[in-house]
Design a protein that fits this description.
Chain B: It comes from Terrabacter aerolatus. Chain B: One of its GO terms (molecular function) is ATP binding. The complex is a heterodimer of chains A (about 400) and B (about 300). With about 400 residues, chain A is of the alpha/beta class. Chain A is about 65% helix and about 5% strand. Chain A is built from 16 helices and four strands. Chain B has two domains: about 210 residues, Rossmann fold, CATH 3.40.50; about 70 residues, 2-Layer Sandwich (Alpha-Beta Plaits). In chain B, the strands form three sheets. A six-stranded mixed sheet of chain B has the order 6-7-8-3-9-10, with helices on both faces. A four-stranded antiparallel sheet of chain B has the order 2-1-4-5, with helices on one face. In chain B, β7, α6 and β8 form a beta-alpha-beta unit. Chain B is elongated, with a radius of gyration of 24 Å. Classes of the chains: A alpha/beta (about 400), B alpha/beta (about 300).
């Protein structure tokens, strides 16, 4: 028989759990765990990388699109056709400096067809009756068609004007339409729309993803009864604080990363001149997101506490899903007075206020006020949410409804 | 070996935590149901107290109230003679009825996390977790995700979660369920080491043989009430003495002996309770008159038997 020497239990700890260590900040330990778990989660890393590639890809595509030149080769038989093509080249270049049109002389229809079929020429321009015909293998490109049409029209106008004893300028007098805006801005509504959409999408993705993750991590602890161990170790308030903080840091970090890469992508495009305006709006968006996400994170934690199993999450998170969907839809559905109101409503303001700032129709104090309103809303949500979270978390008998949780006693 | 403060040489050494957990008139109702009704008993320092009772007797509800996971509708829990606080409970080791850990986190990482939440420093938590994993034969699984472990091994991880650090008290709900015999022995050793340190240990179990083997004290709960409590010997002394009688012939006649209650008669063998003092003498004389007596022996009542009596 051999004697087994065992390592004694805890000869490294001097006394029963020393209370002076880490007592004041268990929330920091919780937050750190949430961050580490998220950052080492493969699905999270992959989805973040894919989104980054998508944003960078959009930038690269814009650059490629911007630098791409298109050359159309048109087969013509005579000098008159050649002149038309030269004229078309000028008008095409004026419309888009990346487009050129060249002429190549052919002997007749069979040669032209051979060139077009072989891909050397894009179309064959030839005279039919009193007009001209542009024949190509498939439908001719709009840019080429427009260029040739303009050339033909200009040529005909010149000829007809000369015949009538007047000039083209005289004929075209009063046909120019100029567009302006009452606010005096140069039209960049496309950019405002695009950026607002980007804000809405970012908000939607981050809120849904991180919100669901918070709820899932709460119900994971509840379902496994791990929460009973946690609840005896630290106050539940600290657990909630750590969860919200940890996830908010990650969510915000991701949004900042996406926004930064997005801005870099924009700097490579034609919209780069608007970068200062855009950057200001992005900074406001990040600020609003940070404050608004706090409230959402707390609500999602409550939703997790109300569920008793992962399967219940869909119904307990339904109110938040509706809020987020509403904010998303409102971001492109609202305009005018409604948009102004929305830009002060908590959560909705995350998307609509930066949008208004970008459009340039918000005074300096408006985003500040909206941010304060949202901060107040978040504070109230956290206080109320913390109570519901505490009451429901240790209830292990089925799903708790929002109404029950709000009216229950401690 | 360590950088932390005063060293102790083993679980038996060092300062003794010598407080009692005292339950006073503890009650809890769920709607109209009184799950726990006026339960009072003491888990003394350094004592292993077994908590037995059928399903739905109220054991888990009682333990959850001791740990503050559930608030009582009546009564109180005392620690060291004063009402228990959340800060006191923070130094307790607790094992809930239903087991669970973070499935997708490594064993070592989450145990260190739980240890740190209970106030251990990172180094101390790691050292305590490592030594416990070694004791329970799980050292080589420290880096594995919990979901990869068998249920029995997950149970061992749960044990470490409750016992690590130097808890001042242990409240364990069915700590032995799902353990193989080797793990039951390790667990029993660990619990004894803690009681020898002066820690009060309360654990519930359905395995009465185990409770009998380990416990110094016993509390039997039925329908929310304490129906018996004390040392196993105390409980036995209240039990009616039983005897086994084996004869050469049929034992059917014992049913008619005054002062004797025949619990069971099977051919020449009978199990008897002596209801009236002195009746055994009459019984034996009659038996010898009828033939030979092969055996007449007092039967030590098993805990299972006592349990059946008190919960009947």
């Amino acid at each position: 028989m051999t004697t087994v020497t065992r390592p004694p239990v805890d000869d490294t700890v001097s006394d029963a759990l020393s209370l002076d260590e880490g007592v004041g900040r268990p929330w920091a330990i919780v937050a750190l765990r949430e961050i580490v778990v998220r950052l080492t989660n493969r699905a999270f890393i992959v989805s973040t990388l894919i989104t980054l590639v998508f944003i960078a890809g959009f930038g690269a595509f814009s650059v490629w699109q911007g630098s791409r030149t298109t050359t159309y080769t048109v087969a013509v038989a005579g000098a008159e056709g050649r002149q038309l093509v030269e004229r078309a080249a000028t008008s095409a270049h004026r419309a888009d400096d990346k487009v050129t049109v060249e002429a190549t002389v052919v002997s007749g229809a069979p040669a032209a067809r051979a060139l077009v079929d072989g891909g050397t020429a894009d179309a064959w321009l030839h005279q039919t009756g009193s007009g001209w015909t542009l024949t190509s293998a498939d439908d001719a490109d709009l840019a080429l068609r427009t260029a040739v049409e303009t050339a033909l029209r200009d040529t005909a106008l010149e000829r007809n004007a000369a015949a009538a004893g007047t000039t083209v300028q005289a004929l075209e007098l009063g046909t120019t339409l100029t567009t302006t805006r009452f606010d005096g801005q140069i039209g960049n509504s496309g950019l405002v729309k695009g950026a607002t959409f980007a804000f809405a999408l970012l908000f939607f993705m981050a809120a849904m993803m991180f919100g669901q993750q918070i709820a899932a991590s709460v119900v994971e602890e509840k379902q496994s009864r791990l929460v009973e161990i946690l609840a005896t170790a630290i106050p539940l308030r600290q657990l909630l604080a750590g969860k919200i903080l940890g996830n908010s840091v990650i969510a915000l970090g991701q949004v900042v990363l996406f926004a930064a890469v997005g801005l870099v992508a924009v700097s490579f495009t034609d919209a780069s001149t608007l970068l200062p305006t855009l950057s200001t709006a992005v900074v406001w968006f990040v600020l609003f997101f940070a404050v608004g996400f706090f409230a959402l994170a707390c609500l999602y934690a409550v939703a997790g506490a109300l569920a008793s199993r992962t399967e219940d999450l869909q119904s307990t998170t339904a109110p938040m899903t509706m809020i987020i969907m509403a904010v998303y839809v409102a971001s492109f559905g609202l305009s005018g007075r409604a948009l102004e109101v929305a830009s002060f409503v908590p959560i909705a303001s995350v998307v609509s206020m930066p949008g208004r700032l970008l459009a340039g129709d918000a005074a300096w104090w408006e985003p500040v006020l909206a941010l304060l309103i949202m901060a107040a809303f978040s504070a109230v949500t956290v206080v109320v949410g913390e109570r519901i979270y505490r009451r429901s978390l240790l209830q292990n008998r089925g799903r708790v409804s929002w109404k029950q949780a709000l009216t229950a006693r401690d | 070996m360590s950088t932390i403060g005063d060293q102790t040489t083993g679980p038996g050494a060092g300062p003794r935590a010598t407080a009692d957990i005292e339950l006073r008139h503890l009650s809890r109702t769920f709607g109209d149901i009184r799950a726990v009704d006026d339960v009072s008993f003491t888990v003394s320092a350094g004592t292993l107290t077994g908590f037995v009772g059928g399903n739905g007797a109220g054991k888990t509800t009682t333990m959850r109230m001791v740990m503050g996971v559930l608030s009582p509708t009546g009564g109180e829990v005392l620690w060291d003679g004063r009402p228990i606080t959340q800060l006191d409970r923070r130094t307790f080791g607790y094992m809930p009825e239903e087991r669970g850990l973070y499935p997708k986190q490594a064993v070592l990482d989450q145990l260190v996390y739980l240890g740190r939440l209970r106030g251990l420093g990172a180094t101390a938590a790691r050292a305590s977790v490592t030594s416990h994993l070694e004791r329970l034969g799980l050292a080589d699984r420290a880096k594995d995700h919990v979901e990869k472990l068998s249920l029995g091994n997950q149970q061992r991880v749960q044990i470490v979660a409750a016992l690590m650090g130097r808890p001042r008290a242990l409240v364990l709900d069915e700590p032995f369920s799902g353990l193989d015999p080797a793990a039951v022995d390790s667990m029993a050793d660990l619990l004894r080491e803690h009681t020898s340190r002066g820690v009060p240990v309360l654990f519930s179990s359905h395995q009465l043989d185990l409770v009998e083997r380990l416990c110094e004290r016993l509390v039997v709960l039925a329908r929310g009430h304490v129906v018996a409590s004390g040392t196993p010997e105390d409980l036995r002394s209240h039990s009616v003495a039983r005897h086994r009688l084996v004869l050469s012939g049929d034992a059917g006649w014992v049913r008619d002996v005054a002062g004797i209650h025949a619990v069971d008669v099977d051919g020449p063998t009978a199990l008897l309770e002596v209801v009236e003092h002195g009746a055994e003498r009459r019984l034996l004389e009659e038996a010898l008159r009828r033939g030979e007596v092969h055996e007449f022996s007092p039967q030590r009542p098993s805990l299972a038997q006592i349990y059946r009596e008190v919960t009947a």
